[in-house]
Amino acid sequence: xxxxxxxDVARRAGVSPTTxxxxxxxxxxxSEATRERVAKAIAELGYHPHLGAKALAxxxxxxxxxxxxxxxxxxxxxxxxxxxxxxxTARRHGRNVLLLTGTEVVDDLxxxxxxxxADAVILMDVELEDPRVEQVRGxxxxxxxxxxxxxxxxxxxxxxxxxxNGAACADHLADLGHHEVVLIGESEIVYQxxxxxxxxxxxxxxxRAAERGMNAHFRPCEGTFESTAGTLARILGERPxxxxxxxxxxxxxxxxxxxxxxxxRVVPEDASVVAVCPDRTAVQTSPQVTNVxxxxxxxxxxxxxxxxxxxxxxxxxxxxxxxPTLTVRGSSAPMRAPRA
Length: 340
What we know:
The structure is a single chain. The chain is α/β, with parallel strands linked by helices. The protein has 14 helices and 12 strands. The chain has helices at 6-13, 17-25, 32-45, 51-58, 76-92, 105-114, 131-137, 162-175, 188-192, 196-211, 225-238, 253-262, 279-282, 296-311, and strands spanning 63-67, 96-100, 120-123, 143-146, 156-160, 180-184, 215-219, 244-247, 272-277, 290-293, 318-322, 326-327. α1 (6-13) packs across α3 (32-45), α5 (76-92) packs parallel to α14 and α11 (225-238) packs across α12 (253-262). The radius of gyration is 26 Å and the shape is elongated.
């Protein structure tokens, strides 16, 4: 295969290589006749601009870095879906994605921002007190934070309306007539680290439950079958009147649905279950679980769009929250009258 160069195109069109470059990049006003000659030469020769050289000339890498430290408490399938959508959307805009998964998050981030390896960065799973935040504040590299730090001022942030998600779960159970309700949360370490989504979902649930006159409580859960069984046994042992269950830990959802009947609570006749999870997870359980959606594809696509918008010179600022969408399925029903 013969490599066609920009100089070859210039000779075929009878113009200078600089003129060919101007036509390709659109940086100068070129006469229509000249533009047509260059376009014809490109088509005849099958010339393809070298993307690496173009990036070097513009001092752009055409790369968006995505940083997500893969610790043990991560729900990997959800992360993978978000990252995939970031990559697909970035490619539509002619950009590649560099994924950073190491635990030395600040050093990794400093390396790509100061070394010019990426034009923009997306920080996934941002915590309330996240060391990556100050690193992006200290650079001119466009950034998007997926999650809300304690101080989001001056940052571009994207997240679910987690407070709204928790409130939507409480409202649904209240509307069904439940009075004793519980949120089965993520593992205890998630709350110790003050993960933004977990803290805010719990806050939204507890506040709305109080506003609706419900008696609400909370239990963390590791998500395994054994830990879920122990969590449910403790809940029903301490508060046997509990009939409304909200599950935040996605791994625990099928266990809750299978264990409640073994504990004498048929779903949804004796107990209603609501989960915060992607729709594809909700329809794979038995019964299918009522859920507030976690729209992974929408999150990934929107994060990439916000990064690209900044790279293209648009003014982007503030916090974007994706509101709750609750879908009723077979795991929740109106509270029935006590058995005689």
